[in-house]
Design a protein that fits this description.
Helix content: under 10%
Number of domains: 1
Order of helices and strands: EEEE
Structural class: mainly beta
Shape: globular
Strand content: 15-25%
Radius of gyration: 12 Å
Largest sheet: 2 strands, antiparallel
Length: 79
Amino acid sequence: MTAPHIAAKAPMPVDVKAGETYFWCSCGQSKNQPFCDGSHKGSSFTPMKWTAEEDKKAFFCACKHSKNSPLCDGSHKAL
């Protein structure tokens, strides 16, 4: 796998907690989107570690093309 799989062409909203660390799926193969489940093993992809700075609803990238990973930047609109 050389290009990430597009899991969805929309952001995935998640209620996150301040200080908690999340591991965002960068390959798009995880069955636990937008988070890693280890499906990348054997590929060049690795999960991205992200820690929430505050309690909020975060919009995680599901198209895997965001320039602001792991958060959505609207790149899915051009796919």
